[in-house]
Amino acid sequence: MRCWSAAKRKPHCRGRGSRASGARTVGQLKLFADVVRDGSWVEAVIDTADPNRQPIPKPDVRRMFKPRGPVVVFGASNFPFAFSVLGGDTASALAAGNPVVVKGHPSHPGTSELFAGAMLAAIESLDLPRGLFALLQGSSHELGAALVKHPLTAAVGFTGSHKAGRALFDLGASRPRPIPVFAEMGSLNPLIVMPGALRERGDAIAKGLAASVLLGVGQFCTKPGVILVMGEAEAFVAKLEDEMKASQPGTMLNQPLRDNFAQRVAAWGKIPDVTVRVASKPAGYALITASLFETTADVFLRTPELREEAFGPAALLVRCGGVEDVARVLRVIEGSLTGTIHKGSNDDARTLLAAVEPIVGRVIFDGYPTGVEVGHAMVHGGPYPATTDPNSTSVGTAAIRRFVRMVAYQNAPDALLPPALQNANPLGITRTFNGQRTAERL
Amino acid sequence: MRCWSAAKRKPHCRGRGSRASGARTVGQLKLFADVVRDGSWVEAVIDTADPNRQPIPKPDVRRMFKPRGPVVVFGASNFPFAFSVLGGDTASALAAGNPVVVKGHPSHPGTSELFAGAMLAAIESLDLPRGLFALLQGSSHELGAALVKHPLTAAVGFTGSHKAGRALFDLGASRPRPIPVFAEMGSLNPLIVMPGALRERGDAIAKGLAASVLLGVGQFCTKPGVILVMGEAEAFVAKLEDEMKASQPGTMLNQPLRDNFAQRVAAWGKIPDVTVRVASKPAGYALITASLFETTADVFLRTPELREEAFGPAALLVRCGGVEDVARVLRVIEGSLTGTIHKGSNDDARTLLAAVEPIVGRVIFDGYPTGVEVGHAMVHGGPYPATTDPNSTSVGTAAIRRFVRMVAYQNAPDALLPPALQNANPLGITRTFNGQRTAERL
Fold first, then answer.
1. Partners of B158 in the β-ladder
2. Could you tell me if A234 and A193 are in contact, meaning their C-beta atoms sit under 8 angstroms apart?
């Protein structure tokens, strides 16, 4: 399909975050290009033979990662650049050597086609196989289901709502030949402010936190949705309220998202013992203002609907009596992408860290979760329902591991081995040779 | 539960393979002990901060593997030593730091209790938490289902039949919080003998192959079940027939397995254009003799029931016209643990390798698939239905990766980081520091 034929339509670009996420797209692609150029990502492991071993001879065994097969990527609505057509999922699947079929998100078809056109032009100019990449547009569930159920599909990358992600995961698991659906489905991203941090820099935290909640009109999967504070927090809460009140209305990605958000926060406002500090007001097409809610640990513990993500510019403050209260709250929060602890110079965060770590993929200290650094160490993942696989990440170079399979070769003639496993190490990659890392030839 | 209280019952040990698999149990445990002692398996990755980076500062991000949570292991019937109570799944799950609950296989409850007793005694003498290990015995499906569905279970290891493995996989995937079920479910393990190999060493291959098919009375998951030969193969087939005929009857693991096997091979014998070269004869309790069938590529292609695994001492010879015929047969064989190619000095195996590799986890040259070396490079895995996850192995040190999750720490104070990620590198492990491997402190 020649996607660039339709590329002259006005792209549905978004203002907020576009520059940063554009930089991230380039960053992800560049990092994966480095990883592919280096080549060591295949994890070549070579155990050589020992014909004299007793009771039986030891064979020569060599293994590496190979591409898993065609990958279907569902573009996310909230990152038309960094997590849609040419985002992290596509970059990591291609880097591992798999063809990619993208199901474009219906809320930015024009942007999707621009990206697909760039990709297809690159494929043409490099004389790569045309089947390496395709974009399908459409909004029907049937289209997505057909892609997941196609016999040749080997894996799926998805970013979006829990409902859609779980439906695709279930489809993948129930196939005659099950395939993994790596779904990233958003989360509450609890952020804790310890008493010392409140005292030492409460105003600055309130300011930074409001900016993080409001970034991209609250539509980041890492938006801190639940703020846990202990002790004397009135000044901090007042400052946060001021910041949220002073914010400008923002345009959400599309009207249904805005309407869902408005409904959710309206329902929160009606829960007894939940105080509305700032109320969201819907305006014209997809416009909305920020909201801030406040409640106690006890109310949070007994009110399951407060633990549902409000995807948009809202945060819920939970006033806690102390560390034990915070730990109780964390125990009822389900798997999250991130957990953040703001500590003062004399706060001991050990107990809180032990309570946060089991439910998140990334623990952040004295910062905000909404920036996701693209690097070797990043984990943009977490226990279910943040993702469907807590041993994976969709951002950073480790994302490549989702789209591979392991293959071993036993007593293979050197010339028949993939170059990565040949004695002469023609790719010059770093390998594990009888347990030791080396870039040497054997 | 104090398993050793019942350990004086006569253990149901098996003769065949017990010595080798006993050595393998020790080998697996020793190898994992080395891996844990070394400590680098956690894959510590450290990307340091750059406060001056534009357009935004770069944070300090560090990641590592952490234990996934309680693992349920289903003991296999065919490896009471190497893949049951204290087998590879248990060793790798414990090595990763997870507690393990074993569901013992009902066909060797005595052996299971002896192993569990040894484990619990070790836990006691080392003063480890008692909850680190438990054995549950029983034969009801409800017991297995309850273990997979328990909210605290984080992953499952299974070796056995496709029917049972798929049922457990489906249970794991359909939980409110899905968990992976790493099921190894056996396979056809195609073995190809090329014309040059037939000419150069046909008799030796026939002898080695018969021994491999008959090892453990044909109850190895890597038993070569389908033998593909090209060209002048009559002498080879006759020799293989002699070897199979000359073999002694063997006792299978239990009567139901024997009866299933006898039924399957009896059904094969009734398929038109399938020649019975040697017929299995059931004898007393669980006893059976070997069988050998012969057919053509065309019959194999049009007869789906020939592609079902016959778990026991049987092999099916498929006579092929040439490499193209072999490739056609391989295209209808589903995912297998192994694929083997015997080539002569002048045979070009490139085309065959390209046809075998996509459907297997391990390619073997000029050998037999039934020995599974325990090492860093081993892959005992393969595409579905050989296993439920082609990016995993249940033998070798890479097995540890099934039972972990990734966690990242951003801008964490050094003292709060896990030792594996602290600047001083107190564990002395090898880490990836800004993209370079090093065992140094920072």
1. B74, B183
2. no
CA geometry: angle A152, A157, A161, nearest 5 deg: 130
Mean pLDDT of A7-16: 33
Furthest-apart CA atoms within chain A: distance in Å: 79
Both tokens of A162, joined, read 């829990």
pLDDT < 50: residue spans in chain B: 1-18
Please tell me the predicted confidence (pLDDT) of residue B12: 32
Give kind and range of the element (H or E) at residue A382.
none
Q: What is the pLDDT of residue B24?
A: 61
Which residues, in sequence order, are bridge partners of residue A404? A67
Dist CA A228 CA A349 (whole Å): 14
Q: Are B309 and B338 in contact (CB under 8 A)?
A: no
* H-only helix segments in B285-332: 297-302, 323-332
Determine the average pLDDT of the residues in A401-428.
98
Average pLDDT over residues A186-203: 97
| Sequence-ordered alpha helix ranges (H) in A8-108 | 18-38, 88-95
Confidence of residue A157 (pLDDT cuts 50, 70, 90): very high
Distance CA B428, CA B155 (A): 30
Optimal mutation site among A34, A332, A407, A438, interface B, most CBs of chain B within 10 A: A407
The C-alpha atoms of residue B323 and residue B325 are separated, in whole angstroms, by 5
Residue written as tokens 């046809």? B355
Residues within 8 A of B (CB atoms), A 27-66 only: 45-47, 55-56, 58-59, 61-63, 65-66
- Give the confidence band of A21 by pLDDT, cuts at 50, 70, 90: low
E-only strand ranges, B56-108: 61-67, 71-74, 100-103
Q: How many residues does chain A have?
A: 442
When mean pLDDT is compared across A21-35, A187-201, B36-50, B188-202, the lowest value belongs to: A21-35
End-to-end CA distance of chain B: 46
Contact status, residue A118 vs residue A135, Cβ threshold 8 Å: no
Residue B311: exposed, middle, or buried by beta-carbon count in 10 A (0-12, 13-18, 19+)? Answer: buried
DSSP state for residue B249 in the 8-state scheme: P
For residue A13, the model assigns a pLDDT of 31
- List the beta strands (DSSP E) in A68-178: 71-74, 100-103, 133-136, 155-159
Prior bond to A383 cis, omega within 30? no
- Cα–Cα distance between A378 and B60 in angstroms, integer? 10
| Tokens, residue A300 | 């949070």
3-class DSSP state of A431: strand
- For chain B, say whether A152 makes contact (Cβ under 8 Å): no
Mean pLDDT of chain A, nearest integer? 92
How many Cβ atoms from other residues are within 10 Å of residue A321's Cβ? Answer: 13
CA atoms of A423 and A413, how far apart (whole Å): 10
A31 falls in which pLDDT band (50, 70, 90)?
A: confident
Chain B closest-CA separation from residue A66 CA (Å): 9
Contact between chains at B376 and A432 (C-beta distance less than 8 A): yes
Q: C-alpha angle A360/A364/A368, rounded to 5°?
A: 110
Q: Which residues contact A31 (CB under 8 A, 6 or more apart)?
A: A374, A375, A396, A397
Q: Which amino acid is residue A321, in one-letter code?
A: G
Contact A407, B363 (CB under 8 A): yes
Cβ atoms < 10 Å from Cβ of A2: 9
The reply to whether residue B407 touches residue A360, judged by beta carbons under 8 angstroms, is yes
**Tokens standing for residue A138:** 């459409």
In a 3-state reduction of DSSP, which class is residue A348? coil
User: Rounded to an integer, what distance in angstroms lies between the CA atom of residue A403 and that of residue B363?
Assistant: 21
The one catalytic residue among A184, A243, A294, A309: A184
Q: How far apart are CA B84 and CA B74, in angstroms?
A: 7
